[in-house]
Amino acid sequence: MTTVASCLAALALQIPFYTGVILLMRLALALKLSAAIAVISCANLLLDLGLNAWLASFMGVTGIALATSIVYACSFFLLLAVTRRRLRRTQA
Known about the structure:
Elements: H1 3-12, H2 15-30, H3 34-59, H4 61-91
Helix pairs in contact: 1-4, 2-4, 3-4
């Protein structure tokens, strides 16, 4: 597989997570979870830097693309957990 094809394949993994992050981010803002968003964003930055360095060391530019997809997946699951917890509290 060429470098371009492998990069696009690694980046395509983020599409469902990216869409979910956008929707969950709007929900989190509506629920006034700005502090949680800030913490998650800082964690994403650190995770992205670490994964970029680690994956790029043996995968090259494809590793950077894969790191981006992994960060979006982690961001999605963190936002999902935070918003679900807030929604459960408001229903109780």
